[in-house]
Design brief:
Largest sheet of chain B: 5 strands, mixed
Strand content of chain B: 15-25%
Helix content of chain A: over 70%
Largest interface: A-B, 32 and 38 residues
Number of strands of chain A: 0
Distance between the termini of chain B: 96 Å
Number of helices of chain A: 4
Strand content of chain A: under 5%
Number of domains of chain A: 1
GO molecular function, one term (chain B): transferase activity
Shape of chain B: flat
Number of strands of chain B: 24
Pathway (chain B): Protein modification; protein glycosylation
InterPro entries (chain B): Ribophorin_II_2nd, Ribophorin_II_3rd, Ribophorin_II_C, Ribophorin_II_N, Swp1
Structural class of chain B: alpha+beta
Helix content of chain B: 25-40%
Shape of chain A: flat
Oligomer: heterodimer
Protein name (chain B): Dolichyl-diphosphooligosaccharide--protein glycosyltransferase subunit 2
Largest sheet of chain A: none
Organism (chain B): Hibiscus syriacus (Rose of Sharon)
Chain lengths: 117, 681
């Protein structure tokens, strides 16, 4: 009983500490995290749809899922580059990182649109 | 299309007659009924004026009496065309031509209207056919309304414009744009020019006429020929619909030539053998009893013909030759010489000496009787030459040089010593032997096994005692199961022999043992006694078929069913994929939008603001344009999916990206500078 309670307490304590640690992240990083979450969710919904109805226009399925995954990856790269705590990218201005993000997204979506069929 | 060609065949052949000459020979009723069938009234009128004219002309020449309904229909359409102001020159031309036969009355007012419209058509013409119809129409109306003072204004100018369509090789083009030239167009051009000359008010420049005569001789240089001396004009087959064919082209040229010869003084220099060749062409078409005259200034050709080109040795036929004019009337006194007889074997050396044929007054034929004593069966080429006896006749008649005629000589070929033998393969000793009588059915019965050979032999001799190789000498063996095998019998000289070595043929016979019926045939077109005879049967004992031997082909119960329709092929198409119901797809579309909404709600909860948006006008404009640019690119992608293709998209994208990069660079560097200033401050 005590062990169960302690494991439950442990889980809850862990969750709380994560939550509090996350609260201090700057707002722009939180926006990027939200964007990544949105992209992943959209990909999941598409996979569920494919599981339901079958993968007949497979290229369409792939292009949809890869668009979400690709944009999520690009957003993660942006987050890495913009994060002030990351020493590696100290000299990179965040605007430059954002410009790269925008450009790469445009190229990704061109390819996706072509593959969509 | 076939109808049009048939009409041309009837019409153009007869229209190339010198207009003034009547026909002597009677035409048969089959021609008349064919013409009546071809030209029928459709709801009381013909389909076009061209057809009306063709019908009337054909009926006139074939001697069909004028039917009242045909004439009435023709007059009706003629008066309609003539009275209307909007008739094209082509319609007027054919209406007037039809009128020259139907002889309907045209009012003076209408004819004045025709003359003025045709005159304006002449000055406004740009193609050869326009000139042809308008000038031809004027010539016809001049004849019909007997207006002798009708003249063509600026005849020389019109002549030169028509002459501009000529080419250096003697052919003519239809218009200045169209580069295709034809002999048919040459004929039309000559007729048009003849019409211009007849309508001219004063003498045309003689140099024009002489260049035209040169053109005519150049045209004749391009004449084509068949091997037997027949000459004709033909055009290149460029467009199947426009192609007129050698008959139309040749007729058109002759018509033009006739018309031109009628209006010009002085002779046109044409080689007489070319005229002869053209005459042979028309006769060779094979329309019986329709003869034609050439223009009065050209010589009458003499035609050499043979009533029979196949001579039989058994019937002791004699060689008969007939020489007559193109009309079919009698030729002047002349002699026919047989210059030589050539066969395929001796192409250069003649088999007989040059000799004259005897003229038989009663039948009008030249005969040679004792020729067949020398010649054997086969096909030969006889070369004749016609020599006129009166030297004055040379100017009137043209005989041509040597005439080559293929002659076929048939006769009875003797078959002797025919026998069929079964031999032992190794020793060559005869096991069984039978004599055959190849004129009657035989009932030989032989038997052999696979170690033996069968030999069939015979001799063939021609009536003259020479060796003869027939076209066909076959032996056919047919098994009980209807599997057939055919063998060719070879020869050496007069002796023919075939040896069937059953050891080698076992596989060819599909290892089928049993009774084989034998049939034997010898045939040739020169043989009067070709035969196909059943010899009898042979029992063959062949070894068992091994496992891998080929099966004999299945024999159809009715051998003609192999030519019948084959089984129908049913195609199996790939079944289309199963698609989900539309409601499910739309539901999931809605579900996909949900995370986006979640994103916006999250943004609001985070408290995003637009405080960093630049306030100053220039950067603000750039910032606005930056967002507009991104929006434009995304919109382009939507259009790309909807209807554009990749290359169009890439082209537009190129422009947009350059624009966006420039704008983006400006705004983002501005923002970076602003935040750096803030940091340092």
């Amino acid at each position: 009983m005590a062990r169960e309670k302690s494991s439950k307490d442990n889980a809850q304590a862990l969750f709380n500490s994560l939550r509090s640690a996350y609260a201090v992240t700057p707002v722009n990083l939180k926006i990027i995290d939200l964007y990544v979450g949105f992209a992943v969710f959209t990909a999941l919904i598409q996979v569920v749809y494919m599981a339901t109805v079958g993968s007949f226009p497979f290229n369409s399925f792939l292009s949809g899922v890869l668009s979400c995954v690709g944009t999520a990856v690009l957003a993660v790269c942006l987050r890495i580059q913009v994060n002030k705590e990351n020493k590696e990218f100290k000299d990179l201005p965040p605007e430059r990182a954002f410009a790269d993000f925008v450009l790469c997204n445009l190229v990704l979506h061109l390819v996706i649109m072509n593959f969509l069929g | 299309m076939a109808r049009i060609l048939a009409r041309f065949l009837v019409l153009l052949l007869v229209v190339s007659i010198c207009e003034a000459a009547p026909l002597f020979q009677p035409i048969s009723d089959s021609h008349r009924s064919a013409a009546l069938e071809l030209f029928t009234l459709d709801h009381g009128s013909f389909k076009s004026l061209e057809e009306t004219y063709e019908a009337l002309r054909t009926f006139q020449i074939l001697g069909i009496e004028k039917k009242p309904d045909v004439t009435a229909a023709a007059c009706h359409s003629i008066s309609e065309t003539v009275g209307s102001l909007s008739s094209t020159p082509k319609d007027l031309f054919y209406a007037l031509k039809a009128n020259s036969i139907a002889e309907c009355k045209i009012h003076a007012k209408a004819s004045k209207g025709i003359i003025s419209s045709l005159n304006s058509a002449v000055s406004g013409s740009s193609s050869l056919l326009d000139f042809y119809y308008s000038v031809g129409g004027l010539v016809l109306i001049k004849d019909q309304s007997s207006k002798d003072d009708l003249q063509l204004a600026d005849a020389e100018g019109v002549f030169r414009s028509v002459k501009a369509f000529s080419q250096s090789d003697g052919r003519w083009r239809y218009s200045s744009n169209n580069l295709e030239s034809s002999a048919f167009a040459a004929g039309i051009a000559l007729e048009t020019l003849a019409g211009i000359v007849s309508l001219a008010s004063s003498e045309l420049d003689q140099s024009l006429i002489s260049t035209l005569k040169n053109d005519i001789s150049k045209l004749f240089d391009s004449i084509e020929k068949y091997g037997d001396g027949t000459l004709y004009f033909d055009d290149k087959l460029v467009d199947g619909y426009e192609y007129k064919g050698p008959l139309s082209a040749t007729s058109s040229v002759l018509r033009g030539l006739t018309a031109f010869a009628a209006v010009t003084t002085g002779n046109i220099d044409l080689p007489r053998d070319k005229m002869l060749g053209l005459a042979k062409f028309f006769l060779g078409i094979g329309v019986p009893d329709l003869k034609f005259y050439l223009a009065c200034r050209v010589s009458i050709p003499l035609i050499l013909s043979l009533p029979a080109a196949v001579l039989s040795l058994t019937k002791k036929d004699s060689l008969k030759v007939r020489v007559a004019t193109v009309l079919g009337s009698n030729a002047p006194p002349l002699t026919v010489k047989l210059v030589g007889v050539f066969s395929s074997v001796s192409k250069d050396a003649s088999l007989v000496e040059s000799q004259e044929l005897k003229f038989d007054q009663g039948s009008g034929l030249h005969i040679l009787n004792d020729l067949l004593e020398i010649i054997d069966v086969g096909s030969y080429t006889f070369v004749f030459e016609v020599v006129l006896q009166e030297p004055d006749d040379e100017k009137v008649y043209v005989t041509g040089s040597q005439t080559k005629v293929p002659i076929f000589v048939t006769g009875l070929v003797r078959i002797e010593n025919s026998e069929i033998v079964v031999l032992d393969s190794d020793l060559g000793s005869v096991e069984s032997q039978s004599k055959l009588d190849l004129t009657a059915k035989n009932a030989v019965s032989l038997s052999a096994n696979h170690l033996q050979k069968m030999r069939l032999s015979f001799r063939l001799t021609t009536p003259r005692g020479l060796a003869f190789k027939p076209h066909q000498a076959f032996l056919k063996l047919r098994h009980e199961s209807k599997v057939e095998h055919i063998f060719v019998v070879g020869n050496s000289g007069k002796h023919f022999e075939i040896v069937l070595n059953f050891l080698g043929l076992v596989e060819k016979f599909f290892y089928l043992s049993g009774k084989y019926d034998m049939e034997f045939t010898v045939g040739d077109s020169a043989m009067e006694n070709s035969f196909l005879v059943a010899i009898g049967y042979i029992e063959l004992d062949l070894p068992q078929a091994p496992e891998k031997a080929t099966r004999p082909p299945l024999q159809a119960i009715d051998p003609y069913t192999r030519y019948g329709p084959k089984a129908e092929i049913t195609h199996i198409f790939r079944a289309p994929e199963k698609r989900p119901p539309q409601e499910l797809s739309l539901a999931f579309l809605g579900l996909t939008i949900l995370p986006l909404l979640g994103f916006f709600i999250g943004l609001l909860r985070l408290g995003v603001n637009m405080k960093n948006f630049p306030s100053k006008p220039v950067p603000a404009a750039f910032a606005f344009l930056f967002h507009v640019g991104i929006g434009a690119v995304l919109l382009l992608y939507v259009f790309f999916w909807l209807k554009l293709d990749l290359f169009q998209t890439l082209k537009v994208l190129g422009f947009l990206v350059v624009f966006l990069v420039f704008i983006g660079h400006r705004i983002l560097s501005h923002l970076a500078a602003a935040s750096a200033k803030l940091k340092s401050a």
